[in-house]
Amino acid sequence: MVVEDRDWQETWQETWQETWQEAWRDHIWLPYTQMKHAAPPLPVVATQGSRITLADGRELIDGIASWWTACHGYNHPHIRDAVTRQLESMPHVMFGGLIHEPAVRLATRLAALMPGDLERVFFSDSGSVAVEVAMKMAVQYWLNKGVRGRTKMLAFRGAYHGDTFATMAVCDPAEGMHKHFSGVLPQHRIADLPRSEEELPVLDALLARHADELAGIIVEPLVQGAGGMIFHDPEALKRLRALADKYDLILIFDEIFTGFGRTGTMFACEQAGVVPDIICLSKALTGGTMALAATMARRKIFDAFWSDEPTHALMHGPTYMANALACAAANASLDLFAREPRLDQVAAIEASLREGLEPCRGAHNVTDVRVRGAIGVVEFAKIGDLAALKHRFVERGVFIRPFGNIIYLTPALTIGSDDLRQLTDAIVDVVRNGVV
Question: How far apart are CA 240 and CA 204, in angstroms?
Answer without folding.
Answer: 10
